[in-house]
Amino acid sequence: MLTVETRHAVHQDHAKTMDTDTLRRHFRVADIFADGEIRLVYTHYDRMVVGGAVPGAGTLTLDKVDETRTTTFLERREMAVVNIGDTGTVEANDTSYELGRGDVLYLGMGTGAVTFSGGGRFYITSAPAHRALPSRRITLAESNAVKLGAVETSNKRTINQFVHPLVMESCQLVLGYTTLEDGSVWNTMPAHVHDRRMEAYLYFNMGADQRILHVMGEPDETRHMVLANEEGALSPPWSVHCGAGTGGYTFIWAMAGDNVDYTDMDFVSMGDMK
Fold first, then answer.
1. Each residue of 112-132: pLDDT tens digit?
2. How far apart are CA 50 and CA 24, in angstroms?
3. What is the distance in angstroms between the CA of the first residue and the CA of the last residue of the chain?
4. How many structural domains compose the chain?
5. Parent domain of 22
6. Would you give the DSSP letter of residue 35?
7. CA-based angle 73:75:79, to the nearest 5?
8. Distance (Å, rounded) from C-alpha 5 to C-alpha 51?
9. What is the pTM of this model?
10. Cα(175)–Cα(191) distance, rounded to whole angstroms?
């Protein structure tokens, strides 16, 4: 079963007027992991698609998606899949890839239908592509690990870069995930924006009673959303994106836009945040 929800772009002036429910309706991503289903969110932020596939006891195939008006979903797109569940299998272009928990699979433009099976909980991200590049499975050991932050500032963390110029080539999709160390709760502080790219978050590895306070909005006009495990946020190019948790967590970040320069960001000093 495939379902697709479309999200249109929101201007920052409109976002300033939103109450909690309206903010969550436009920017929160939730309920994308359901047994026996593929659930996608098609956004008008750089045409990024995010979603989940949970095959359970059967198999699921992602092939034609009406919203793209192409013969197959990946006809003019690239895709990255992160397995946040038990070991599962992704089959594409007559090749089978076994993904353990935390493994990432990149599928290039023109790959064709994609089939999911096994015990995985597969997080899907996809962006338009302009040329075909080799598909590749990237394990945690093969990622580029960057350690940032400090215990004193409650943001000691490891950033693992997977679909990233230091690891492999892609068209415009950049993806990795960040894990907070014990006792640290803040992610991506000091905050930043990057007007050249949108970004999508997915928070996971959280207990049922834990929550994330996800901060968004213009630096001088911030808003927040309270998010639970396996929920995420869409971050427009004009918005900051940072947050704090009530316990340990990991979040997947995925970007698409004008470039793949991970360091192309405009930092915002804490004194300018409101």
1. 999 999 999 999 999 999 999
2. 16
3. 43
4. 1
5. 2-272
6. B
7. 60
8. 10
9. 0.96
10. 18
